[in-house]
Amino acid sequence: MKTPSTIWDYAPAPESTKVEIKPQYGLFIDGAFREPRSGCSIETINPATEVSLSRISEADAIDVNLAVVAARKALKNWRRAPALERAKYLYRIARRIQERARELAVLETMDNGKPIRESRDEDVPQSAAHFFHHAGWCDKLKWACPTANGSAPEPIGVCGQIIPWNFPLMMAAWKIAPALACGNTVVLKPAETTSLTALRLAEILQEIDLPPGVVNIITGAGETGRELVAHGDVDKIAFTGSTDVGRAIASTVAGTKKRLTLELGGKSPNIIFADAAIDQAVEGIVSSIWANQGQVCCAGSRLLVEESVADEVIEKLRMRMRSLRVGDPLDKNTDIGAINSRAQLDRIESFIKIGVAEGAQRHEVSDVVLPPKGFWCKPCFFTEVQPAHTIAREEIFGPVLAVMTFRTPDEAVARANNTMYGLSAGIWTSRGSKAYEVARQIKAGVVWCNTFNQFDPAAPFGGYRESGFGREGGRSGLSAYCA
Ligand code: NAD
Asked: From the CB of 347, is ligand 1 less than 6 Å away?
């Protein structure tokens, strides 16, 4: 693959692709892989090369029912298992993820398109960390989520969990670990373009002898998800994905006894005050919008810069953008990998066209050579953006940043909150009191100060408004899985 011309050039450093990928995967139900009843399957491709990787099964209503029945059957023993017994399995999963880390990172990068640096250093370690963290909670639930009589809380029951394609293994870990720690059983549906690491996780569950049916992993597209949501014997739905699908799920679940948590989209502000350490802030902007090609629910896709330093920040950002290496995600030097699918690339490109048509000014690196095959989008940012512009309001879910300015902290807060979303925010200032005052007024689930995109299993993550409700991580995340 041809490397892009950038300011700094490095010798290619490709990761070995030697990982076993089966030509076809079945559904993981009741502890075993089985053929789907429908006989239907979906091709999954490497978005950086468009080469076919494998075929995943498409679960229909009968398969979904089999998975739910298996989860219900397993619930009887799992919920009554001694807390330390549940912890033992969670620790085993965490350790096996660590042991198979390289393989999982390569597989994630091939299936998703994200740089190996990110899957190796973020996705896989964070996934293991979530299992380790929740293993530690198993025998402490009566302190984490106290009940009126002081006993440990009861689990909710069978949990249907549906996840997106941007952090496939990590989202699976965020969902499965707290559910199991609290004594629930699970039917998980990964996204149709990125199911391979969840299926590899299923192999790990077999290796560590997790009792059959405690976790079931069924693959398929939106229809499979719809069947799971509508199933009458599921006690809770935990969904991470787009706001539109989240709304549809909420209306299906309304009027039933099912519990629901929704982790949805975002259009997060990243606020740079004039007194910030500007070089560090620019690094924060880079990671907030260009990590994972901007396909991050909490991406800092609206940059709000204090007017007096706007020229300096924009110039430094332009310089830094020039140094980003776009290309082979399996090269350890790559900063920007492939967009996950043709459909997502088309969506991003249509937003870029709208941005230009509405009068914003686009800045991108002109001399990047993109690989001939695959789905690629150069990182870019827009200036001359008005709050009413489409690119300032709607979630693009790509490496596209909208830059706006402000004059006072009050104006920064007003602009930051001028959104239907409320997932995250960043504040860059050298004054602690200002960071506190501004953070207090911002309506977002997470506010980072002088950093961005930092995650920890002990810290709750989630949204307000159209970004959803419920939290994942920490004690709040545990309580979402207790009756
Ligand atoms: P999506 O909503 O299209 O799909 C998410 C999952 O839902 C997939 O598994 C999909 O197959 C399934 N699905 C689709 N239609 C369904 C239906 N009608 N019923 C049940 N399931 C259905 O989202 P996506 O494109 O995969 O992911 C991108 C979106 O996810 C972005 O909006 C992003 O912000 C959001 N996201 C949010 C968080 C968070 O924590 N808040 C994290 C990651 C991604």
From this structure: no
Q: How far is the CA of 190 from the centre of ligand 1 (A)?
A: 10
Distances (CA, A) of 297 to 122, 165, 246: 16, 11, 13
Q: First vs last Cα of the chain: how many Å apart?
A: 52
Q: Is 188 in the pocket of ligand 1 (CB under 6 A)?
A: no
CB–CB of 178/472 below 8 Å?
yes
Residue of 174, 253, 264 to test ligand 1 pocket, by largest number of atoms within 8 Å of CB = 264
Structure tokens at 330: 């399996």
Residues linked to residue 406 through DSSP beta bridges, in sequence order = 306
- Cα–Cα distance between 322 and 307 in angstroms, integer? 23
CA dist 17 and 328 (Å) reads 12
* Cα→Cα distances 386→392, 406, 418, Å: 7, 12, 12
Instruction: Please indicate whether residue 165, judged by its CB atom, sits closer than 6 Å to ligand 1.
Output: yes
Complete domains list, the chain, with CATH: 24-264+465-479 (3.40.605.10), 269-449 (3.40.309.10)
- Supply 259's token pair: 């519990």
pTM value? 0.96
pLDDT tens digits, 148-188: 998 999 999 999 999 999 999 999 999 999 999 999 999 99
What is the 278 CA–ligand 1 centroid distance (Å)?
Answer: 35
Rounded CA gap, 284 and 270, in Å?
9
Question: What phi and psi values does residue 8 have, to the nearest 5 degrees?
Answer: -105, 140
Q: 463: Cβ below 6 Å to ligand 1?
A: yes
Give per-residue pLDDT as tens, 338-364: 999 999 999 999 999 999 999 999 999
